[in-house]
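Support reply, case 0932

Customer input (verbatim):
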Amino acid sequence: QVQLVESGGGLVQPVGSLIISCAASGSIHSINDMGWYRQAPGKQLEFVAEITSGGTTNYADSVKGRFTIYRDNAKNTVYLQMNSLKPEDTAVYYCKANIYDYTKKYLEVWGQGTLVTVSS
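Our regenerated output:
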């Protein structure tokens, strides 16, 4: 079993901050890239941020400068720190990880999603 469990979503005021997390567990050999995606109501799933196993990051233009992705490899966890939140950031946020299990089987694993609502 390999799974990603997300937490930290909730309601936050505009210009506020929030940190969401995604923890991987199960029969894991290694975790390569990890990333965050989001889907706002009525819109397509969009890329938000990604981080490689070596710490290289990449961000969507819409969040660059406001969001920070980081990981704690000892905890098999990736985080997304969101600052200066805007109503347009309201979405269900999904994490994704590229994982190899103990037999070196490649797995693309998605989290269950966590809702972030930015509103007064």
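We compared this against your earlier run and they match. Two observations from our side: The first strand starts at residue 2 and ends at 7. The mean pLDDT is 96. Please reopen the case if you see a mismatch on your end.
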